[in-house]
Design brief:
The complex is a heterodimer of chains A (79) and B (402). In chain A, 49% of the residues lie in helices and 0% in strands. Chain A is mainly alpha-helical and 79 residues long. The termini of chain B are far apart. Classes of the chains: A mainly alpha (79), B alpha/beta (402). Chain A: This is Acyl carrier protein.
């Protein structure tokens, strides 16, 4: 799957959760920069699952700290 | 040296800030005396208990207490052992028999708490390479069971049949799958569309586990839960429940007709690596479960007071979490933590105890004053509860003059 296109769409999906209006980049951290709590992360994950028709197991979430890592995971899960 | 507790500094600051506003600690309530399933002394004041999950009002039942006293005399204060070693006494076998009679199942396994029942069932049933598909609003004990086990965990949107169907459809057809549902969800008090959810699980060849902790005694012909009320008794593989709500003591259990179910006793760590329930607790639970069979008057009254409270609070202008009273949990929605704590504090000052609930226990952004009723409440109690809710609201700073 196309990584740049995935990343671009991912940014669009994250934007509604970007309450502080910070500039999103590969290295933007969900916990430290976006300050998403665990419940908000769950809503974002559900939206991502529906966008790409994938399941994102809860077990892999703790390792996905940045926007770039999440984009990589989506590409990998989509296969 | 890094102070391991410094990671909790934000919580310490938040809790301190909360108490500095002059309110009672919503997480530090002490019942100085307990008079009945519906009355206790808190801060020296007689208080109506409206947040105890004591649904069937069994905690002070004379037969239940007599059974506990007799077991205390005959079997001692505790078992000091695991169920699979020295911790199985006659009362443990008797309470499992009572559960089999109550649920009409082939097997029943008793755990030391409801939390451990979910922890044990969820972590043991689904192993490496299997999938757990759980409702997003599942209880913490279910999420923790997922963490303890080795299965892949997938979440679906709360009570959303189509969402469950989609997620099951993405999984390998041949993989082992466990769909975990709850009959009543304990925060908002809403019930699950189990018939549709279970049909979808069956379509994808998944096994099903339903937690009926908040429905035992007053849903379905025999009081087995929402699944019985909806006619799904031959559809559910495992039912999990608790003794700490309708039964009125403490403990957890799972019941099943699966022919291999009993093996869980030997492979489930939260069952075998902990001490069994004190025999007096097992005996009180047995007595209570047997009395819950045919407790029609109690369940009728529980539904009557629940409906009346919902209607009364709604008429008084409170925002209810569910449009109709779906269970014995009647939850009032508030906009934020500050207003929720202020109202909770005023209620306690007016002699009403309910639960203050907030994220992450509640779904995102939801703040609740959660009431749960008991069969021991009277319709007059409900009038008092409603009038005190109104009085508490009127006494808030900034309240409009009535």
């Amino acid at each position: 799957m196309d990584r740049p296109a995935t990343y671009a769409r991912l940014i669009e999906l994250i934007e509604p959760f970007n309450k502080k209006g910070i500039a999103l980049a590969e290295s933007t951290s969900f916990a430290d920069d976006l300050e998403l709590d665990s419940l908000t992360v769950m809503d974002l994950v559900a939206n991502i699952e529906d966008e790409w028709d994938i399941n994102m197991p809860l077990n892999i979430l703790p390792d996905l700290e940045t926007v770039g890592q999440l984009a990589d995971a989506v590409v990998k899960l989509k296969g | 040296m890094t102070d391991l507790l410094s990671k909790f500094d934000p919580y310490i600051a938040e809790h301190k800030g909360l108490l500095e506003t002059g309110v009672h600690d919503p997480f530090g309530v002490v019942m100085e005396r307990v008079m009945s399933p519906t009355r206790a002394i808190i801060n020296g004041r007689e208080t109506i208990l409206v947040g105890t999950y004591n649904y069937m009002g069994m905690t002070f039942d004379p037969d239940v207490i007599a059974a506990g006293k007799a077991a205390l005399d005959n079997f001692g204060a505790g078992s000091t052992g695991s169920r699979v070693l020295n911790g199985t006494f006659a009362p443990h076998i008797a309470v499992e028999q009572a559960l089999k009679d109550f649920y009409g199942t082939r097997s029943a396994i008793v755990f030391s708490t409801g939390y451990q029942a979910n922890l044990g069932m969820v972590s043991t049933l689904a192993g490496k390479g299997d999938y757990i598909i759980l409702d997003a609003d599942s209880h913490a004990s279910i999420y923790d069971g997922c963490k303890l086990g080795n299965a892949e965990v997938v979440r679906f949107r709360h009570n959303n049949v189509e969402d469950l169907d989609k997620r099951l459809g993405r999984l390998p057809a041949e993989a082992g799958k466990l769909v975990i549902l709850e009959g009543v969800y304990s925060m908002l008090g809403d019930i699950a569309p189990l018939r549709e959810l279970v049909a979808v699980a069956k379509k994808h060849n998944a096994m099903t586990l339903v937690d009926e902790a908040h429905a035992m005694g007053f849903f379905g012909k025999h009081g087995r839960g929402v699944y019985e009320e909806l006619g799904l008794e031959d559809q559910i593989d495992f039912v999990v429940g608790t003794f700490s709500k309708s039964v009125g003591t403490v403990g957890g259990f799972a019941v099943s007709n699966h022919p291999k179910f009993e093996i869980l006793r030997l492979v489930c760590n939260p069952y075998r690596f902990t001490a069994s329930l004190p025999p007096a607790v097992a005996a009180t639970a047995e007595a209570s479960i047997r009395k819950l069979m045919g407790a029609e008057a109690k369940r009728d009254n529980l539904w009557a007071v629940s409906r009346k409270l919902h209607a009364g609070l709604k008429a008084a202008g409170f925002r209810m979490a569910t449009d109709t009273p779906e269970s014995a949990i009647i939850a009032v929605l508030l906009p934020d933590q500050e207003s929720t704590v202020a109202m909770w504090h005023q209620l306690l000052e007016h002699g009403i105890y309910c639960n203050m609930s907030r994220p992450p226990a509640t779904p995102a952004g939801i703040f609740l004053l959660r009431c749960s009723l008991s069969a021991a409440h009277t319709l007059d109690d409900v009038d008092t509860i409603i009038s005190r809710f109104i009085a508490a609201r009127d006494s808030l700073p900034g309240a409009k003059a009535a």
